[in-house]
């Protein structure tokens, strides 16, 4: 009897989880499907699901009109660069907060997080003027800096949480064996926190890849990443939904594939320490 | 042979390097519309004529573009050498000295050929501050088959009463055919573009000569009540969320009897590749109420050069090329006359080839029917047909648009929406110092 209830519950949970999964994935699926339609089929009412004339014309048009590779490379450099720079700053910071806490460490952590609560548009003009004066407008280095600063609180918080799970005694033992601070962090702490660091890196890359406010406002032609590439296909006067969908699919495909392959690490890292 | 070949290769490399070193690169910010994208595909002609100038494109959605270029020109960010700006921005920016004057364009450019209504909107104190790339007005697009079935004939210059009568006759809700489709989505460039133009034909205005808001006038009440009456009885469901694209989709799929919107839509609805009703579309001027003003707007996308750009000469060369008669001829030769950027030059409408395009004449008449310098029945202190060319208008226009959109959605009454519009406009105008 107990076994049957358990199976029933499992079934319900599975169906529920699939329903949520499909609901979340549906907009992406619809975008991908629309990218293979003609503009007329894209606005058909009632909507057509699979029974339409499949075409690659939108991809060809997008490829012909835009320099996809340049936008893609900008996205790679900006998201990769900001993640690397963020880690270089966040690992020592999280180590200090986790293993050598001061009286105000918790307050500092909260204060760092509070910077995420500020609407970005509130600081747009000062940052724009700073970038103008420093010659950083429309540069990849400028975006690496700004995205690092934006995502730093999240990286520090995540790493701090993972580091807290590592017993301090192990680090003490390393120190007693004569390890320096540098080798303690690199050779002892880092290998133990690999799952957590991997998920931090992945999450940060995803956040930086999808960031659209600063990347649209601080770039023009040279440093514009894939977010600007998508924005160039949106139009309030003209039905270009199929082309917009093709551009969107091309922009999200790399990060989607990366997320797909690394989902195990991502989930493992995000649930790290959740079950005692 | 080998030595000759090497010498040749070296010379080529040197020439390439020298060209790269001497070429100037300008950055052009533009909107994503068919005409602008077409120009990007025709750049070979420009490069052939001006090999020393390279062009980098930044294409953005209209609202994003507006915010980006405003931010850049106001802070002198210097990211763009040529900006695509609307007729709303040009007078405001020109007055502030943010744009380079285009008074020194050469004689062969023929500035006098620009349509007077369009040129008037781009001129401040006698100086031209932007060159029009394409211009548009609004007009009635209607289904000739449904009109015929209803036993009616659309006049070239209909009245609002006729539009209401036709909307009632064409509506067949059981078959999802709605007599009229109009903008309902909130925004100064969305529902307020239509409603401000409609209000002009009802004798209403945004402000009197003392800048006092006029939403408490009878003319505004008549405008809003008639609009709500039309849309509630004969419009599609969920119209408060409909903008240009939503109505275009409805019209192209045969669900609208009439649609009053931008003249640029004519090329979309008559394109058999995208429209199911391509061969059943007629055109007429926007309606009036016999008061001397029609309910059509005037808009142009223009190329302006921000003051302080380091590449002013190259930017001017590009603007001159993109808005010239030669460019029009180039588009016609490559893509046909129907695809030429409309609404900017008199010579285009005198061209017998262009006169064969079905919507050309009505587009010209619509543009000529709008007067941005005198947009309303009564005298007003502002310029602009469907907008008021003051910096505060974007915010006020959108806030008022939200009230009228809420009235269309049935969330507030017309009376309440007008009262709220009057209150918020008074407050903002007081804050801005226009009224005490």
TrEMBL record, chain A:
The alphabetized UniProt keywords are: Cell membrane, Membrane, Transmembrane, Transmembrane helix, Transport
One Pfam family, short name please? BPD_transp_1
CDD domains per the UniProt record, alphabetical: TM_PBP2
Residue intervals passing through the bilayer: 12-33, 76-96, 108-129, 141-163, 184-209, 240-261
Gene Ontology cellular component annotations, sorted alphabetically: plasma membrane
Q: Where in the cell is it found?
A: Cell membrane
Name the principal localization, coarsely classed: membrane
- InterPro entries found in the cross-reference section: BP-dep_ABC_trans_perm, MetI-like, MetI-like_sf
**Domain ABC transmembrane type-1 stretches:** 72-262
Name the Gene Ontology biological process terms.
Answer: transmembrane transport
Membrane topology per record: Multi-pass membrane protein
Q: Where is the signal peptide?
A: none
Q: Which domain of life is it from?
A: Bacteria
Q: Which family does it belong to?
A: Belongs to the binding-protein-dependent transport system permease family.
Q: Which PANTHER family match?
A: INNER MEMBRANE ABC TRANSPORTER PERMEASE PROTEIN YCJP, MALTOSE TRANSPORT SYSTEM PERMEASE-RELATED
Can you say what this protein is called? Sorbitol ABC transporter membrane protein /mannitol ABC transporter membrane protein
Q: Which organism is it from?
A: Celeribacter persicus
Q: Show the taxonomic lineage.
A: Bacteria, Pseudomonadati, Pseudomonadota, Alphaproteobacteria, Rhodobacterales
UniProtKB/TrEMBL annotation, chain B:
Give TM segment ranges.
none
- Keyword annotations from UniProtKB, A to Z: Signal
Work out whether the entry's keyword set contains Glycoprotein.
no
Q: Does the keyword Signal apply?
A: yes
Where does this polypeptide localize? Periplasm
What's the superkingdom here?
Bacteria
Annotated SUPFAM superfamilies: Periplasmic binding protein-like II (SSF53850)
Protein name in the entry: Sorbitol-binding protein /mannitol-binding protein
Q: Where is the signal peptide?
A: 1-20
Show the coiled coil region(s): none
Q: Which family does it belong to?
A: Belongs to the bacterial solute-binding protein 1 family.
Alphabetical list of CDD domains matching this protein:
PBP2_TMBP_like
Q: What Pfam families would the database entry show?
A: SBP_bac_1
Where is it chiefly localized?
Answer: periplasm
* Gene Ontology cellular component list: periplasmic space
